[in-house]
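#struct-pred

JT: dropping the chains for the assembly here, can someone run the whole complex?
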Amino acid sequence: MWLLYLKVFLVGGLICMLGQILIIKTNITSARILVLFVTIGAILEALGLYDPIVEFAGAGATVPITGFGRSLAKGAIDAVKQQGLLGVFTGGLTATAGGIAAAVIFAYIFSLLFSSKTKKY
Amino acid sequence: MNDIERDKKYNDYVQAKIPKTKNFPTLIYSYLVGGIICLLGQGIHDAILAIWPQVTQEQANVWMLIVLIFIASFLTGLGLYDKIGIFAGGGSIVPITGFSNSITSPAMEYKKEGIIFGICVKMFSVAGPVIVNGVVISFIIGLIYLFI
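RK: done, full complex below.
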């Protein structure tokens, strides 16, 4: 139990630090980081390499945005096995619909409720 | 002044003005913050499984992401998430909370341009590329799996 939490922390932190290393080395924007990590996660899942990481580290692998890419790929693969060609179109978004819908709905509500303050750096 | 010389001067000026991130401490902060967000996720996941035993592992995962997205969106609304982002860098961008922040933040920023052209359009200024790329890559992977 506590060992799992340790693994979650170590793996999750490591994936986030890889993002930070990219930022420092290349001055990459956050949109590109998100796109890059989603793509990496999806490709790793397609190659069957991401599931072992999830098994090992739980939320340490599903919370980083690579886990989002993993759900996209996993959804597509599972749907293709069940529905064939239709699954190619429906699989990815079906698997990630919960996350995208939640992000959109909460963003809509909170952007109506709150106004942004001027940023101070 | 010819063009090449002018471009060089401009690039030097840009380089001088780019906010400098201190290399080593931000690595540690990003590791700590990223790790803690993942720990929080695992905690939520286990709590959901403990409270509602009939929920499957997969469903608990989606619930966990939804709760994290809610928290990040709320903190963004309060203006607290950006403060974490200043010192945590990748630690606040890479987890799913960063995805949520990237949707809520521009939506709030452009609220004054109206609901349709402000909130609804700008909401996807960062998340749009992520979703478009994600859909395309999942389509390609699905297509490959269809033929093998």
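JT: nice. Chain B touches chain A through 75 residues (CB under 8 Å). Chain B has a mean pLDDT of 88.
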